[in-house]
Each structure stands twice: as structure tokens, then as C-alpha cells.
Amino acid sequence: MFRLRTLTGLTALALCLAGCGAPASDAGTDTAPVAATPVFVEPSSAAAPTSPSSTTPPAKQPAKAIPKKSAAPRTDVKYVFPVKASNVAYHPTHGKYPATDIFADCGESVVATTSGKVLEVSLKDTYKKGSPDGPNNGGLSVSLLGDDGVRYYGSHFSKVQSGIKAGVRVSAGQLLGKVGRTGNANNVCHLHFGISPPCAKTGDWKTRRGVIWPKTYLDSWRKKGSKSPVATVKAWEKKNHCKP
Predict the structure, then answer these.
(1) 146 closest CA partner among 225, 221, 78
(2) What pLDDT band is residue 169 in, cutting at 50, 70 and 90?
(3) Which of 46, 152, 177, 233 is the most exposed place for a label (fewest CB within 10 A)?
């Protein structure tokens, strides 16, 4: 009788364990665990990713517009003497303001001192003798903004080469026109040559006609040198509050 009761108790215990399920810590590998109530834990900032979804790169955000900056002046530019002729003379000084008159026969070639973009071109001689100083003094002229950030101005042309106009890019040594005596040239064939910063880029003729002495640079370029006026022009620009 005792044996029967013992077996009955063991059977009841086995049925209870089968129906209720064993604790997760005691369950065998072949027994499926009972689903537990999920517990959510906020991940710490230092916690490493634990799921495949957490290793997925975040969606790219639209790129913010970056303001365009003006291209920095180049320092590797080539310089060329502005008049392509063997019989040339020029002076270290000039009347009233820093510039140089390069004397050569009318019809000799005027070329771009360096690579850059044409800023202004005058194709018509409207100067009247005795009139006040002004932009018409130059007669036929070309203003060039070099890739070094410096402006180079030549005037008194007898002819401006076809295709040379504002906005056109030119390379060092490219033909711009011919030496002449238009404008206030006192009937003498020469190229007025001025170096300046592009304060207003166009229209500022008092600056455009020249603000630093060109002779030392012309001396270098005539000997195939590469002396640059950038530092001197920048110093003048800062001192005179030049605004491009």
C-alpha cells in the first residue's frame, strides 16, 4: 500500500513538472524555454552594438551647401615680357603715377604678360586732345586679370586682336594686339603698361592705369625670369583698402 502511494505521488510530481515547465536555469538543451516577459533596458553610450540592425550605417543626411569661395591666386604662373620685339626701351619712372611706357615701333606685337582672364577692352579711340584725364586717355586698350590675382593693363594699341574681349581666357605670350599711339600718347608709338590689384575689377581707371613701379618685373621677364609682383600689389591693396 505504501509502495502504491509512493508511486502515485511521484507520478503526480512528474505531471506537475511536465505541465508547469521546469525553471529556465534547470531546463535541458532539448527543452524549449518558456517565453519571459520582455524587459527593456536603455543602452549606455559606451555599450557595443549587440544586434545586426545596430551595426547598419545611419542613413546619409543631405549635404549642407558650402558657400563658394573665389579661387585662390596661383603661384606657379609664367611671366612674359609684354612687347614681343627686339628694339624696346622703357624707363624706371613715369609722370604723375607709378607705371611704365614701353617704347617700340608701331605695329609690334603686344602679348599677355601671364595667363588669365580679360577684364576690359577698349576698341575705339574717343580721346580728345586737351580733355581732362580719364579712361579715354588709353585709347585702344586691354585689361587682364592674371591667374596670380594681379591686374595688368596695356594701352595706346593701334589694334586689338580679333577675339580678345571681356571674359576670354588667354595664356602667357598670347597676342593681344599691336603697339600704337591712340589716346593721349603724344603721337609717340609705345605701350603704356600698368600693374594693379583689381579693386573694382572694371571701371576703376585711376587704379587700373598703375599703382606700383613695373621696371624690376619687366627687367626679370625680359631675361626669361619669373619675378612676381604679387606681394607688392597685395601690400598696396591692404594699405589703400582696395575692395575687389
Answers:
(1) 78
(2) very high
(3) 46
